[in-house]
Every structure is written in C-alpha cells, then in structure tokens.
Amino acid sequence: MELFIDSADLKAIAYWSDILPIDGVTTNPTLLARSGLKATEAVQRIFAVIGEEKLVHAQVLAQDFAGIVQQARLISGWHRNIAVKIPVTLEGLKAIKVLAPEGMKITATAVSTAHQGLLAAKAGAVYLAPYVNRIDNISGDGVAVVRDLVSIMSAHGLSAKVLAASFQNARQVLQALAAGAHGVALSINLLEHVAGHGLTDASEECFVQDYRKAFGTTEL
C-alpha cells in the first residue's frame, strides 16, 4: 500500500514526512494556489523536503490535446521521479495514449467512474486516481468505484495502481483500503485524524502519571 501526502504546504509536508513512512506527495493546481508556489518551484522544493527517491505527482493545466502533451512533457522533465497528472477528459485520454509509450509516468486523475479508469489504464496510465468524496457528493459511490477498478485491473491483467483520493473523512479512507486500493492520497487534515486518536493520548498520559506517582520520576 502506498501513502501520499496530498498537499503543497512545505512545512506540513516536512512535519508529516518525518513521522510517517510516506511514498511521496500529490499536488494539484488548487493546492499550489493555496501555497503561493508555482508548479515548477513547488515540485523542486517538495523533493528537497521528502528526498529524491520519493514520487511527486504534478498536474497539467492545459485542457486541449496539444497543450496537455506539451505541458506533460515539460513536467516529466523536471525530475526522474515525477508522475504527471492528467484529468480523464476525452482530450486527456487522447494525450495519455500518446504519452504513455514514451515511458512517462502518468496519473489519470479526476476519475469519476470505473469506465474512465479502465480506459486510462488501457491507454497506459500508471496510476488511477478516483475522487471518492466527489463521487459521493453527486450521489455516486466512491468506494464502489475503487472496488470495481481494483477488480477490473486484476481481472484483465492491467498494471495500473488505484490511488484513491479526495476523501472527506477517515472512514472513507479505511473503506477504500478495504476495497483494495493500492494507495491513498491524504490531506493534512485527514492525516491528523488517521494517525492520531484522543484515546491513545489519554492512555499514554495515564501510564506516565501512574508511574510517576509510584516512583516520583519518569526515569526507567
């Protein structure tokens, strides 16, 4: 299972990458806009924080075939461990089919149906990123899309990994992983909920206080 931090906040990325065994970072234009960093600078600074061997996902902004191809090639050249995120529009699928044979790592993003994910995998995408909560918000079933994609990849011998994204709560994350997702991309807010728990903190404090009362110290 692969774990990605979904953020462009350098301080937050540094904090959580020190704590958790992450596989890399996912970004998108909205996250970059919030960070105040343009894509080129953000990618290089993220690698400086997490290390050169991790994977960073960066997204094209162009919406037409020619523009997507041009930007994807540009992004791919920024680093050897970069995955280019291309939305699964018709223009995006057309671009994936052309770019994948070049050896480019492509993340098919904004996947809303298993059909879109299948077509992107067939075109050569390395990762498929279904947007779990956004699918739920239009009365779909995001976790079911994840489950279907995992099953389809296995049934047809396709190598694309299902990287579930766009979660609203920790339960969705757990359900996506139980459905077989090969990886998840989690926001900073969700990392806090997934990694920590008040009961754990309270239990730890109780242990420390009991020991201190008995021995007047916390030394072992």
CATH architectural name: Alpha-Beta Barrel
The average pLDDT score comes to 97
Strand order of the largest sheet: 1-2-3-4-5-6-7-8
Largest pleated sheet: 8 strands, parallel, barrel
| Total domain modules | 1
What is the distance, rounded to the nearest whole angstrom, between the alpha carbons of the first and last residues?
A: 36 Å
Strand percentage lies at 15-25%
Helix proportion range: 40-55%
Uncertain segments are: none
CATH superfamily: Aldolase class I
Strand count: 8
Q: Report the total helices.
A: 11
Order of helices and strands: EHEHHEHEHEHEHHEHEHH
Class per helix and strand makeup: alpha/beta
Shape: globular
**Level-1 CATH class name:** Alpha Beta
Describe this protein's structure.
By secondary structure, the protein is an alpha/beta fold. The protein has a single domain, classed as Aldolase class I (TIM Barrel). The chain is 53% helix and 17% strand. The protein is built from 11 helices and 8 strands. It has helices spanning 10-19, 29-35, 39-50, 65-76, 90-99, 114-123, 132-137, 142-155, 170-178, 188-195, 198-215; strands at residues 2-6, 24-26, 55-59, 82-87, 106-111, 127-130, 161-164, 183-186. It has an 8-stranded parallel barrel, surrounded by 8 helices. Helix 6 links the parallel strand 5 and strand 6. The radius of gyration is 20 Å and the shape is globular. It starts with a strand and ends in a 5-residue tail after the last helix.
